[in-house]
Amino acid sequence: MKLASQIELDALQGMEPAFWPSPRKPSFIQSLSAIADKYDIFLIDQWGVLHNGIAPYSGVIDALENLQRLGKAVGVLSNSGLRSNDNITRLHHLGIPRALYSSIVTSGEVAWQLFKDADGVFSEFSGKRCFLISSDRSAHFLEGLDIAQAHDLDDADFILLSGLNPDISESTIDMLIETGVSNGLPLICANPDHMRITNHGLKPSAGMVALRYEAAGGAVIQIGKPFKEIYRYAIQSLSRSPKDRVLAIGDSLHHDVAGGNAAGCDTLLIEQGILSHELAEFKTAQDKENAVMRLAECESQIPNWIATTLSW
Cellular component GO terms, alphabetically (predicted)? Predict the structure, then answer.
């Protein structure tokens, strides 16, 4: 699928998503069944909503099965820097069958397609050498692209950051930023997430490195949520009618709610996942609801709906 030309313009200008304060007050719901009839398309985040990297969360399979039963279009929308097929394999291994979702779109897939199409600003990377940093420590992402892998920053024309492997050191990241900026290398970030869920709690993710790189004076293009192009791509892959009603579901105010708002979707914030670490100190449901509202107001991103988990 060829991406719309507006995607290139958004990336070229390093456009921030259209953040705006919303006057609406969200409604807290017990389950997805309470609002399922209001929407035709469901764009569902992966980590922190469907699974924790080890297994699906309780209630997720039942929710997906019921959406399929109702004939809803379900798209997994993820800031994974890996391509879509890699994530299909991961979901299968975690126990989430391919039959339970209509499509999967990842920031890595969108980035790969932009490089493959080589339109506009992305034509500048064809035939060039990239210093690749990925979560799986492999050059698998570059397969099928007219881009060579550079094994040293001094030999690279740009940096491609598709993820962080679990044991990358802070000194390595510092060196990457210092040398990359000094050498004038643009950085393409295919995973804008600021934090990631690990077996050892929340850890900084690739998007945080991109922010540091930009703050140090480097040129950065980010691809994925909350930027609009990934929503256009996902909706285009699923939409059956211009009147389709879309609900974006995720656990991040900054990425899922902000991105959904900017794309014109309704949004459902899940308290599980990233937010669970911030809500752990609150014991009652009311205290948690109040805390979520304060966080949403601080981010100036108010979802339409809030639920504890993705369940039916």
Answer: cytoplasm
